[in-house]
Write a structure and sequence with these properties.
The structure is a single chain. With 647 residues, this protein is α+β, with helices and mostly antiparallel strands. It folds into four domains: 209 residues, Alpha-Beta Complex (Spore Coat Polysaccharide Biosynthesis Protein SpsA, Chain A), CATH 3.90.550; 86 residues; 129 residues, no CATH class; 151 residues, no CATH class. 31% of the residues lie in helices and 31% in strands. It contains 16 helices and 34 strands. A seven-stranded mixed β-sheet has the order 3-2-1-4-7-6-8. Strands 11, 14, 18, 19, 20 and 22 form a six-stranded antiparallel β-sheet that branches. Strands 23, 25, 26, 27, 29 and 33 form a six-stranded antiparallel β-sheet that branches. Helix 11 packs antiparallel against helix 12 and helix 13 packs across helix 14.
Length: 647
Amino acid sequence: MSICIYMNDELEKIDSYLKDITSHINMNHNEIICIPDNKEKAVLELLESYDKKFKNIFVYDSDESENNLPEKVNGEYILLCDIDTCFDQMKLNEAYDFSKNNKLDIMISSPKINNEYSAFYDDFTSIEGIFHPRTLSKELFFLPKNNFNLFKSSFIKENEITIPANPLEWNNINFYFESMFLAKKAGFHKEYMLLENESPLSLNKILGAVDYENGRKKSFEEFFKMIDKFLNFFTDNNMYRIYKYHILNTIFNYFREVYEFNSEDNECYFAGLKKRIEEFREENNSDLVLTLTSDNLKFYRNILDVNSTNELLLLDENERLEHENFMYHHLLDKFNTLILDLKNSNRENNRLEIEEFPQDTKHKIVLDKFKNADGSGLSVTSYNGSLHFKVRCIEEGNLKFYFRGFELKDKNSRRMPLSIDLTRIIVDDEIILDKNRVISYEKPFRYNKDVEDGEIIDIYVEWLPLNYKSNFRYEKSENPQLLPFNTARFDIKNKGSKNNDIKIVKNNDKNSTEYCPIWFNNDEGKGTIIESSKGKIDFTIRCINSGTVEITTRSMDFRDKNRTRVPIYVDLKKLKINNEIVLNENILVSHDKPFKFVKDVKNNEKLRIQAEWTPLTSKSTYEVEESSTLPLLLKPFTTARFDIKNK
């Protein structure tokens, strides 16, 4: 193996490095080629002494090595490095054996030494086995352009690839791409072959990033020649069309980075840059517009629009202010954003299609939302203050409307209350709301409407941000431990076949809970439960298929820590079905002692249920059970005391 070392440091460091490397490297199987950039007499004399002491140490002039280095190496593989590179002889031998046994043109050393890109390389190096480099073209463009790899000497010579004398020179980039894309067989050595030096400068050099400090010292003409050579390589080898996205973005990444890092002589660089970009426009304008990323496209257009760096700075500043202004208004728009969720609910095939919708960036729509066995819907977001659109209903069903405020979350993903003032809703020329109603994401305004297959629904809504005229109703926070004592539960089931069901059409208690437990779904139909703690409720159901509706009114299922059900009573005062009084006297109900209502119904028949109740009070009528198992919890409520005295 030929280890070519570029040396640009002081005498003491070079001497210390050579002493260390000759004691760790097998000098019988490897040769060391020293390429000094420091040509002080003492340095050259030191290298000459090592040349005489070791038969496999050679010294080549850096000015000549770039053109002649491939011809001078004797090793089967070449390793390029600098004086800050440390070796692990065992891993170096493994890398050599791996390359030779698999007849690799290039062996890519483990890039895990690059901590900055570790996540990217973990994915990259997960590829096993030998591969053709062009199959990883995307990854090859994004790898750091270091060349701390093993290169087969015959491969370099046959393809007449120029080896840079300094692995940190600009030409190093072209060497990287030429070798990688001309290789026919490459592979990975996943173990550490090179070790990081203790020197703080070594890491940057090992990473192989483009050294812009050195780049600034060179003429800008040399930089543009490097770019031309880079582009010509892919053009001459008929690879431009295949990789043009990566090629053009790589070039403009270099253009931008050199401009941003170059603190001196900006005008000089800008003149050459503008000339080169104008040439790009003449040759590849359509490719540039179609393939450049947003940052690169912005830079490309800005350079064409200005004539000096001062103008470019002003343009950048104006764009920054415009962006800040946009972000400021974007933040404020959240306080005037309405979310309207719609769902056509009945069967799995129920859905909604857009018939008319405004073509404005202030309105956004997402289709096929809320998809489940009951159908699907859509969600509209707008910060315009008003919205008018039409939807087409596919399949007969119940169209559910949820008008909400913006969903704003803090850094811990906790939803924060953000209210808007809903002022007007019109659906199919019917006024649904014509007064101020404050809503938020968690406290929406709800509306239901039965629809037919193919029916077009016209929707108009207006709203305002929360303001001093808003009718904000403060809701007193209730102790959740007291809610069970005022919660009524309505178990509703349309009994018949397994396809029998009911749908909640309207419900005036927006805070009530609606759910369909699995145990309530059997061959007789699908049941629905409503729980409310409001003290009164008014809701309407629609029956799906003919059958017998059972409405069971009871208290909630309350259990202690041992999962034993504890009887809790609520005082049912009134129950009306379709405006007919079913119950008009106080009656205590519990979970196990409910009040039942039964009625035969037809398909699509609607039932309006109105109920009122209170917690257990001194006016409630409680009937004592003759049971020795009466829970002790109820004893104070059922025990009578007789005080008798014969005076």
